[in-house]
Amino acid sequence: MAEVDEASKPLLRDLKAVGKKFGHVMYPKKSTTLLRDWDLWGPLLLCVTLALMLQGGSADSKEDGGPQFAEVFVIIWFGSVIITLNSKLLGGTISFFQSLCVLGYCILPLTVAMIVCRLVLLGGTGTASFIVRFIVVVASFGWSTFASTAFLADSQPPNRKALVVYPVFLFYFVISWMIVTFSPSHSDGTTDTGP
Amino acid sequence: MMRQDSNDATEDVSLFDTEDETRRKSKKSKIRHPLACFFHLFFRVSAILVYLLCEILSSSFIACMVTIILLLSCDFWTVKNITGRLLVGLRWWNQVDDDGRSHWIFEARKPSTQGKTASSDSESRIFWLGLVICPLIWVIFFFSALFSFKLKWLAVVIMGVVLQCANLYGYVKCKVGNKSNLKSMATNYFGRQFFRQLGKKDPKAMKDTTMLPL
To answer: Does B10 reside within a domain?
Structure first.
């Protein structure tokens, strides 16, 4: 049973680190803690959650939303890799994995927005619900972009900040677009695709 | 035991042999960390099994994919943080220094710490076999998914390849870093031998070489 103790110590340490980073994203201040010790557990968790939420309850249906699920994964990981490469090519001082970590953790507001959207969609799919969802997503989009640039822009020379922020903006824009346009109605209609 | 009865000379030898054997066996067969060994193999083998059997087990692609991703990340975490340290005494991690530069650190436990902390043969065999074979299988999966155009599976297969190869690379780096010390020792030794050969005309060196049994 000594092994369990030995295993639980690093597990607790890592979980604490992930929780602390979530806190930093929700309350972004100029701090390098998010950059100092990077990890990719939080981004993985957020990515899986987001992809699952975007499925629209079609997880049990025969006609799989599989490509869609994998698509979310590919967009998030490939997108953050591209942004990171871009910032590296522009001469950023931040290391590859640190940048991936920041970009991944800053999806958190969008994931929260996705949860709110699902809750709102439970209420109804009218114009009012769309307006509420739109406002929530725009707010969290701004939040994500602000948080990530707060962490990332420091690593860049001041005259290139816009060049780095621009793809970050696009990246979160695509994700928020997926969230805004998401409606579970089309996945409910999968029953008529079966034979 | 049979040979022990035959005569005294062989008795001595066989006694010595059996003693040595039992000692080696105790070192070999002892698995001090059964739990670590189990989880080292469990997560990666079951990830592969789920990938292979998902068509049979469940019709839902997403359930399979999430299961595989969970298993792969559990495996990555366990192997990187727990089993490598317990089973073979190696570990690797990344550290960011105050200047913001990241360093990869590959560490091997000093072989001088005998007894409790020393790793046994069977444990290290389990560790290395699991560590090497699973990434190979994932690479095979990658090519089979690529050439059969199962593009939706490609994401999870790439994840498997990346996570498992990262661990493999990390531990090989630890091991090689360990070996390079040995290698430098070996080159030092051979260098000394070489110089000894060169300096044969030197009477002192001559004496040294004559003292060698060959």
So the answer is: no
